[in-house]
Fold this protein.
Amino acid sequence: MNRLQLRALLDDVQAGALTPEAAQDRLLQVLHQAPFENLGFARLDHHRTLRQGFPEVVFGPGKTPAQIAAISERIVAAGHNLLVTRTTAEAHAAVTARLPEAVFHELARTITLRTSDVPSGKGPIVVAAAGTADLPVAEEAAISAEAMGNTVHRLYDVGVAGIHRLLAEHDRLLSARVIIVCAGMEGALPSVVGGLVDVPVIAVPTSVGYGASFGGVTALLAMLNSCSSGVSVVNIDNGFGAAAIASSINHLP
Amino acid sequence: MNRLQLRALLDDVQAGALTPEAAQDRLLQVLHQAPFENLGFARLDHHRTLRQGFPEVVFGPGKTPAQIAAISERIVAAGHNLLVTRTTAEAHAAVTARLPEAVFHELARTITLRTSDVPSGKGPIVVAAAGTADLPVAEEAAISAEAMGNTVHRLYDVGVAGIHRLLAEHDRLLSARVIIVCAGMEGALPSVVGGLVDVPVIAVPTSVGYGASFGGVTALLAMLNSCSSGVSVVNIDNGFGAAAIASSINHLP
Amino acid sequence: MNRLQLRALLDDVQAGALTPEAAQDRLLQVLHQAPFENLGFARLDHHRTLRQGFPEVVFGPGKTPAQIAAISERIVAAGHNLLVTRTTAEAHAAVTARLPEAVFHELARTITLRTSDVPSGKGPIVVAAAGTADLPVAEEAAISAEAMGNTVHRLYDVGVAGIHRLLAEHDRLLSARVIIVCAGMEGALPSVVGGLVDVPVIAVPTSVGYGASFGGVTALLAMLNSCSSGVSVVNIDNGFGAAAIASSINHLP
Amino acid sequence: MNRLQLRALLDDVQAGALTPEAAQDRLLQVLHQAPFENLGFARLDHHRTLRQGFPEVVFGPGKTPAQIAAISERIVAAGHNLLVTRTTAEAHAAVTARLPEAVFHELARTITLRTSDVPSGKGPIVVAAAGTADLPVAEEAAISAEAMGNTVHRLYDVGVAGIHRLLAEHDRLLSARVIIVCAGMEGALPSVVGGLVDVPVIAVPTSVGYGASFGGVTALLAMLNSCSSGVSVVNIDNGFGAAAIASSINHLP
Amino acid sequence: MNRLQLRALLDDVQAGALTPEAAQDRLLQVLHQAPFENLGFARLDHHRTLRQGFPEVVFGPGKTPAQIAAISERIVAAGHNLLVTRTTAEAHAAVTARLPEAVFHELARTITLRTSDVPSGKGPIVVAAAGTADLPVAEEAAISAEAMGNTVHRLYDVGVAGIHRLLAEHDRLLSARVIIVCAGMEGALPSVVGGLVDVPVIAVPTSVGYGASFGGVTALLAMLNSCSSGVSVVNIDNGFGAAAIASSINHLP
Amino acid sequence: MNRLQLRALLDDVQAGALTPEAAQDRLLQVLHQAPFENLGFARLDHHRTLRQGFPEVVFGPGKTPAQIAAISERIVAAGHNLLVTRTTAEAHAAVTARLPEAVFHELARTITLRTSDVPSGKGPIVVAAAGTADLPVAEEAAISAEAMGNTVHRLYDVGVAGIHRLLAEHDRLLSARVIIVCAGMEGALPSVVGGLVDVPVIAVPTSVGYGASFGGVTALLAMLNSCSSGVSVVNIDNGFGAAAIASSINHLP
Amino acid sequence: MNRLQLRALLDDVQAGALTPEAAQDRLLQVLHQAPFENLGFARLDHHRTLRQGFPEVVFGPGKTPAQIAAISERIVAAGHNLLVTRTTAEAHAAVTARLPEAVFHELARTITLRTSDVPSGKGPIVVAAAGTADLPVAEEAAISAEAMGNTVHRLYDVGVAGIHRLLAEHDRLLSARVIIVCAGMEGALPSVVGGLVDVPVIAVPTSVGYGASFGGVTALLAMLNSCSSGVSVVNIDNGFGAAAIASSINHLP
Amino acid sequence: MNRLQLRALLDDVQAGALTPEAAQDRLLQVLHQAPFENLGFARLDHHRTLRQGFPEVVFGPGKTPAQIAAISERIVAAGHNLLVTRTTAEAHAAVTARLPEAVFHELARTITLRTSDVPSGKGPIVVAAAGTADLPVAEEAAISAEAMGNTVHRLYDVGVAGIHRLLAEHDRLLSARVIIVCAGMEGALPSVVGGLVDVPVIAVPTSVGYGASFGGVTALLAMLNSCSSGVSVVNIDNGFGAAAIASSINHLP
């Protein structure tokens, strides 16, 4: 049960469409569901949708396709939407054997399956990327944000070496409620974006670069030292994490 | 002119309390003000209140008390509220010679002076700190957030080594719209808080610790690797930055 | 000869089941055995069981299956129990050609063969792991501790992002004599566990994570900076090392 | 109330020296005491003696002499023994104004005051130090361990550059129940000690050295990579932490 | 003798204003001057003006005022212009005792004394600085470049957080022959500037910042990873070095 | 249209070979071309030749052969010369399917295709390399510089361990207008070269080395700390970047 | 011509076995040989045997088998002994096609071919290794030292975790003229050895270890901080470099 | 008793100047002297002169003037020569109160007092320094080497930026038996020197530099990666350590 479903149930009670007794039965049923389900190697947190607004997300690395498929099936069986990140076509094949409608987003390396509606965010989230090589991370953020009920506007290849490309999109930046900015190398884009807007900017350093980029560390450090005051930062390549925070902001009542 | 004043002016026009001509005069006056004022060693950004919701903030380090006093006077003269961070009693003395009502917050090492109202944030911001030594950073965040028009709830000395002290304050965490969490040493507190709530958590690593804490780097890295998905991070000891982001979130319409 | 066998021999003498002459012969035989055996590329330390309570352990990396099999055979031939860590199915195949009863623990990547009894530890050792991906390290610790004569309780997927999963196991933590805690990413679990108990906590950082986790360095640093005072730390992914210390503590008279 | 006092009370009940009613009153009194006491800037954890075997310890850095004196007085007023670490003669002067019997250990930079008996550890703890410059850390460990009820044997200036100095003390090492080894520079001593004994070795890297010792980081890394399997490590210069773990091991029933 | 003087001498010979004999005498005098002069603690390189276009520059740190004065006197005595970097008012006082016309540039922390003309550079050098705190480094670059015969245009407080301040100076950037860009914190300014112009950009990371700026390392790394291809980098705070390269470029025939 | 073509057109107008009307048509045609072309995953910057003197360069890593071929075709179609760096024989095969005359430089790992003349640089650029293993980077620099219209002199295997090999080429160094120096390991060559000449030296650290060379970081740091004042530095292995700066210097009017 | 051959020639002249004319011819022949031979991608330094006591050594990484074979043939053709380090069986196969007597040392990963005598070192060099995994580096050192004319004593698996294994070889250590000590992990062995002897100790950190051994960095740092004063250090895994220095010491007249 | 004295005694016996009985008495007296003397905070190693050729050296940092004076007196009382490193004028004043003839070397920051002859080294040791700022380290090496019985030639301010200054001293380099090379910043000097000679080169990185020199780390790394094969390295600023190794080499029989 997610929050939309909880609200609908309570609305039904108020409207007389559901008796308090029936509502009570349904709620007790949810509460009697164990808060987490022990698969031996993992404890699925089935109440997370209520507590945090979206269900447990499957982080792909270190799990076999079979394990991913098993966990995915349990999540969907519990009535939740599915989101698998950092995954592969092989895992998708294993998942579709059990959940034929699961979709694989190749560039974003994610699997999604929507089984129920999610509450809509309040405004658009802009996902900006400095260069072409940043797209896998940007798409992980965009697909994840969409899965969590947000409208996403993509703004790709707007790095600071050609600042006119970014300035040409000033209006779109101003229309956003939250902005996710992905950049590797020197990681300067969030600082420039942060100076142009007054909404929160979530900076995602990417591992794009070579030599002294140190797998994204340089971009990470640059973003932490941003001279623009509206910028906060997540881990290198953590597109999903940025989406989670942005969606949390975008769903504030 | 800040946004509240702009809105009041337009409301007055709508209500007939101000003629369009008078409003036009006032607006032109603002626009004729140069967007930034060159003091030689600095360019004060006088339109920032309109663009980003709060005026330029004075970062104390590397400026003499005389310079801080001069800049402060110009900011107040332009009709803005004053916020000076990372500053000293000496600087405060210099400022009060020109602005007698400026207040010094010793623990937070900040100077504030409110000359006009600021728009109120939508809900409370909780500022949590793991230990006593984190208080200067936590207070910088709290005082800054208050200066930007937010109500702040302080929750201090709730580090993970005595998890019951944090769990005892679960209700207060749940009441927050944004949570700022300050911690040094192993920087674990944001992960635990992030797992308990569904609102955005801004993690502030502090330089508290010794040996392998490396001046806050360990806490910074831990926060970037948080297994809780609603956590984003700012620079070490950057209480002001956390407040700016939290306030930006809290002022979203 | 291990300590249990030494004690049994002396008990037999006291009980009259063994004459002092026969006991003397047996002891001289042990002492005439060279304290280490030179295989050319390695010097096996055959007295270690007496000196340190368990025999020399074979560290797999950098050794060929044939070398591992050869060393394993010499260890068992000298009357010791076998423990091979960080090893592979290929090495196991080579070992079983000579020692058919050797067991391979796939997740733990270890080979064991018990040829004689070992003294029992005084109480249970709890091995806790923050997430599913930490299991190979946790199992290396658990299998090693069992091989050294300890009872092990496993407590997996109890990371701090869902603190209720850990608190639900408070009783089991309190029942432990030593606790081994494995965690990657931000490495916060040992701090929380350390605040709940009064027994020694051995923290094992794992290389689980990505980006700014730096292959376990972040977890390592966090654990070294733990604000809980009962925590000491071993190298990244060193499950065996944690087991050795825990067993040493658990076998103190 | 510490554990010794709890046990004495229950023994008195068994022996008829105390009526169950009187015992009940005394226990309720302890439980009615708030588990932690909020001083505004700190929350004193008064139940820690029962939970973890020793009371809250005052970490000196970042606290004024006045704050240290205030906290010390509260701790003693609650019936606990006092231990202040990383402190100064100035702080000691402030403490003695309220607690005239508090003792300052100059080399160890600690203040102690014993107000009640503490349970004795089971055997001696050896504190070894590689060089003269490591003594402040070694003494912090030794004084702390003594304050927690342990007998301590000091073994100083036994660094590996003159291995005969260490080997001459082999008997004393073998007599220990736990060994704390403090070393800076290359941090090799714990590895050598660890190979000579079968009891747990707690390694404390010190910041002694220059150039590529990086304030103790080299010693820390060396200790984490010890080829001896019975070694675990605490933070740089963390003599108190080593004592806490050693005492925890030494008080296991 | 510098290159301008050498050329003037040869021009005089060509014009008949100087006999070959007199010219020969003067040249032999220069060549008989030892190529370097040994002061015991330093070897002054008196031919450097001819070899590299400007005389040896005095790097202040680690030298006493007396040493700086002695070296300065020798340089001027040899007919060279004087440039002392990273120096103090105390050193200036010592120098003026011997060379009363030496000028101290307080913000730039340099001493200069022009005793002869230097060849003019071909076009203006722009020195840009991101923030007020970068001015000591920017001024070191500007004063040094001027001492080497270049016209300098200063462009200060044009950091990327307010990109309009930089874009407002686009014309001035386009007029430059070489651009020196000083920035601390995230070091993004050279990337933006580099994308706007086609002349060489010399990036100077400054140690301005705190926390994860690591004394300028973050800015340094960002600049090395600039996505703009016309950017090269010098050491942190090395304003003089940037000026030397810029002047070398600006004096190419 | 590059600068040479622009100048030729204006010369034609002056010479009467082209009517102002025809010239106007041609210029309008260029300006009507969108300043950048959006391929979905990339925005090609077609005005860069005019703005920065050479067209957009294709950076190979992270692009498929098909993507590289598609971008290459668009660049050539827009009338620009082609330069692809860090690429492979596979990519070259894909490119030649569309552009049969594209040349692959195996050691330099670059593809070039000249479709129109480029303005010549003013003097020779010397590319020096310390050892044989530095040649891929040196050749990337040399081929790139040649593609940008420069004459290149190669000076390979002149590392400082045999300083006579470098000194034997002193004349060639003195003949250069700019010098690019590639070195791995201790990165000392730029310092020695910088002391011998008065032209700008662009230092390129290479990832050649092992152990404490850290993939080129040691060479990078050494070059940043060069005691020769005419040295600036680019990223590790960034041969192209060095060529771009050198060419920018060499094309200054 | 090496030094032994030079000395023999001069001895022959003194003894009348060679006329001064013949000797002169032979010496002129050597001097007419170019001091280095340019193969295009490398400049072979044929006078190095005279200058530095042993000929140029071929460092394998980054060279194809064909290149290694070509260089090897030129070295032998010039009358020098051959030493190829960090090489493979494939390269050996290529070399033997031209030089059938070249020997491959598998563990040491080196190829050698002795074509003429080399001057003998004055005493034995001991090569000690802490563990079995250090043998490839230790053998590289041992084979290299032997190729340079030294007698080598190997002392393997004598790490500090079992100090009695080292002490049992005290006599052999005392017999050495130079000692090379290879160790990974905590790198403690050189400190212990350095305290037992008065001859130079060359410490070679190896990349053996995992986690916080950082590919040999920990061992490197430990060795640089050795508390024994007779220890100097070479790069990680640089067995050849240690041999070169040891041989240089051992050949001092 | 040092080795020279031991040899003199045995020579006297052989020459009949001393009876075997008297010699026996003298030797027993030495052996009855405890091998180390426990001062409480230090164990003085009085046999080191015999074992390692020079007596224990006093490392100044962390010791009070009074402690240094006390230790110095005990060393001289035991008949050894005195060497105190990293010390101050204050310590010297304390020492001269007890040992009036002790000499303070200000630049080298060392105290020496020769009470008996030391065996002479076989040839000169050259101490080279790249710049003036390296002199304190170079002098520490020079004074220490002289105290150990070596003749020292100083070669200062010969850094690679003016390679002619070094080449002008080629003869002096060739005359050395061991060369100590001190350099900060990019640390290139040992590589150049190592390529010019065939004797061992001991490289000493100094902490001279700023920014990315990281207190000598850059120089250290550069030296470890030297492309010249006869170079080994000691810790940053460790002039004494370099002298000890050089002297050890220079005293080999």
Remarks:
- The mean pLDDT of chain A is 88.
